[in-house]
Amino acid sequence: xxxxxxxxxxxxxxxxxxxxxxxxxxxxxxxxxxxxxxxxxxxxxxxxxxxxxxxxxxxxxxxxxxxxxxxxxxxxxxxxxxxxxxxxxxxxxxxxxxxxxxxxxxxx
Length: 108
Fold this sequence. Notes:
Layout: E1 2-3, E2 6-7, H1 11-14, H2 26-41, H3 52-71, H4 87-97
Antiparallel strand pairs: 1-2
Helix pairs in contact: 2-3, 3-4
């Protein structure tokens, strides 16, 4: 099943410890929300067909949402004593949607 730019049958290739997919379940909801956020941030009009980087951005943002749902705020400790911030995944997903280009690229 395709949710946004992600084929649910293939998600384990990119996210090995993803929650189990069930229609209407938490993974489906998070993929849908991540797609909506990514589509809102991507340059308009959206490219058709969508480039592979859009799919990766949606998965990264889904992972971020999943981690935030499970860990709560940054003052909590995980079961192993470590808390990993997922904010870089948000930045990475945004850079996949809107790659940064410098007007000085290629100049020497």
